[in-house]
Amino acid sequence: MEDKILEYLKSADGYISGQQLCEILGVSRTAVWKAVGRLRNEGYEIDAVKNRGYRLTGLPDLVTDTEIKDALDTSWAGHPVFYKEEMESTNDTAKRMASEGAGHGTLVVTERQTGGRGRLGRSWDSPEGSGIWMSIILKPDIAPERASMLTLVAALAVYDSLSVRVSGCGIKWPNDILIGSRKVCGILTEMSAEFDAVHDVVIGIGINVNTEEFPEDIKDVASSMYLAAGKRFERCGIIADIWKAFEKYYEIFMQTADLSGLKDLYNERLINRGRRVRIRGVQEASGPVTGTGKALSVQGTAKGIDDRGNLVTETDDGRTISVFSGEVSVRGYLGYV
Ligand code: BTN
After folding, report:
1. What residues have CB less than 8 Å from 281, skipping those under 6 apart?
2. What's the 292 CA to ligand 1 centre distance in angstroms?
3. How does DSSP assign 222-240, residue by residue?
4. Which residues contact 158 (CB under 8 A, 6 or more apart)?
5. Long-range contacts of range 14-17, CB-CB < 8 Å, 24 or more positions apart?
6. CA–centroid distance, residue 212 to ligand 1 (Å)
7. pLDDT, tens only, 326-337
8. What does the pLDDT look like over 152-183, one tens digit per residue?
9. Among 124, 130, 182, which is best to mutate for testing ligand 1, by the most ligand atoms less than 8 A from CB?
10. Is residue 176 a contact partner of residue 189, using CB atoms and an 8 Å limit?
11. Would you tell me which of 51, 101, 242, 286 could form a disulfide with 161, CB atoms 3.0–4.6 Å apart?
């Protein structure tokens, strides 16, 4: 019943009378009153005035499926939304759902992760009530070696959503979003494929939105939108903007199945560009789109990405290399001085 009352309160232009709600829902006034009480307990601010009725005056910062569905303005990204209050990892849930037949665009969201995963086997701190922990299932008709480029497409979309709210955002190659010199968002892309065909790609996005403090081990390198801007942000609006932007960039990406149409935009937002970088575990791109080159560590100056999302870098020994993967430190950021 709360869902229905909420629906009417949201669409009402001003107050809606208790009597009206009773008639529409076919329940007693006491039942309506109790349901309003439960909604208030969830954080909805509902004004009750004698002889006028109820009016919704404030929404809680929830990331439930109802709130996300209300906020989304997309044609396929985020349809459907699968929400659960707690998950071990939205990427794991999304991968399982994809293998069981969930379709392109399915969005998996949770309020807290008990086993959130980061890149390179790291864990990802995902406390309740302050962040965005979500994964989307994609089923693109592209060659497997192109799937990692979708990570950069997602980074562009997250950048758009964050940068209209907080100043000082930048992308650190390939897919971290920084505010100032600290990380506020990480993206983990995982693919299931056969040798020449992608089954599905899961892009997991973690954003520190209203986080007030961080665990000891990451407190010097991590930040949140709240800490950067000194105010709190409504998470559903951020989610909706990300998927709206993602649809636009995904379409551009799919026209060529590479980043040629997005490269310039990405490079404008890239904090690495023109900066000293130290790259550990470098995998050079060898051949047109593969990443099977030799692994090494280099220092040099980053130039920007190429059409395939490789980080073009001029090394200190005078070579120009295209880095397919590696752990990049950028001087001036995340503790690299
Ligand atoms: C990184 O190491 O920078 C990537 C972090 C990715 C975290 C997100 S949170 C939602 C999704 N589920 C996970 O377990 N990881 C990703």
Report:
1. 295, 297, 325, 326, 327
2. 25
3. B--HHHHHSS---HHHHHH
4. 177, 185, 187, 205, 207, 242
5. 14/55, 15/47, 15/49, 15/52, 15/53, 15/54, 15/55, 16/53, 16/54, 16/55, 17/52, 17/53, 17/54
6. 19
7. 788 887 777 665
8. 999 999 999 999 999 999 999 999 999 999 99
9. 124
10. no
11. 242
Neighbours of 88 (CB within 10 A): 14
pTM for the predicted model, two decimal places: 0.87
Enumerate residues lining ligand 1, CB below 6 A.
Answer: 89-91, 113, 116-119, 122, 124, 126, 133-135, 176, 186-188, 204-206
Closest CA to 158 of 247, 91, 243: 243
Decide if pLDDT at 294 tops 70. no
Residues 6+ apart with CB under 8 A from 11: none
Residue of 117, 185, 218, 334 best suited for mutating to test ligand 1, as the one with most atoms within 8 Å of CB: 117
90 confidence band (pLDDT: 50, 70, 90) = very high
Task: Reply yes or no on whether the pLDDT at 112 is more than 80.
Answer: yes
Q: Atom 15 (ligand 1): residue with closest C-alpha?
A: 117
Q: What is the dihedral of CA 329, 242, 255, 308, to 10 degrees?
A: 10
Strands 81-87 and 107-113: parallel
Residues 81 and 62: their CA atoms lie apart, in Å, by 14
Sorted by sequence, the CB contacts under 8 Å of residue 288 that are 6+ apart come out as 308
Note the pLDDT tens digit of each residue in 206-240. 999 999 999 999 999 999 999 999 999 999 999 99
Q: From the CA of 172, how far away is ligand 1's center (Å)?
A: 15
CA 118 to ligand 1 center in whole angstroms: 5
CA atoms within 13 A on the CB side of 101: 0
Place of tokens 């800490």: 227
| Tokens, residue 216 | 């000891």
